[in-house]
Design brief:
By secondary structure, the chain is an all-alpha fold. About 75% of the residues lie in helices and about 0% in strands. The longest helix has 16 residues, at about 115-129. The protein is globular. The N and C termini lie far apart (about 50 Å). The model has no long low-confidence stretch (mean pLDDT about 95).
């Protein structure tokens, strides 16, 4: 059942019941491959997977994880993926790459003000460097 398997999985994540990051990644894949989710729920799971993996994967893997979100113009999760990638590059002090992702957020319409504000504040920090 998509609802209960997803809820169970998030309980496992929240309680840190599995330490192996590769096993957690496989569980994300299992959920996505074996359940039929609404498009935005699927995008949320893809975003959460990328967010989880952003702590340990290389740049190319993170870009691959977020590719479908970045290519989805109508998804509400696209701006979140842009912010994630901006923060990823910001943390690595790759400010030009971070700036590109933050700037894309500013051109999105009908976003939560918090996303705009976060992108603007990060861009201001980059400008101060």
């Amino acid at each position: 059942d998509p609802t209960y398997s997803t809820l169970s999985f998030f309980m496992i994540l929240n309680e840190n019941l599995i330490d192996d990051k590769y096993e957690v990644s496989e569980l994300f894949d299992h959920l996505l491959e074996n359940n039929k989710f609404d498009k935005e729920i699927r995008n949320l799971l893809l975003y959460k997977k990328a967010l989880y993996k952003s702590n340990y994967v290389e740049e190319s893997k993170l870009l691959e994880e977020t590719k479908s979100l970045l290519n989805s113009e109508e998804s509400v999760w696209k701006a979140h993926a842009l912010l994630l990638l901006g923060d990823f590059y910001f943390s690595k002090k790759e400010f030009m790459k971070a700036k590109d992702f933050y700037t894309q957020i500013l051109f999105k319409k009908d976003l939560q003000p918090a996303l705009y504000n976060k992108a603007k504040s990060k861009l201001a920090l980059i400008a101060d460097d």
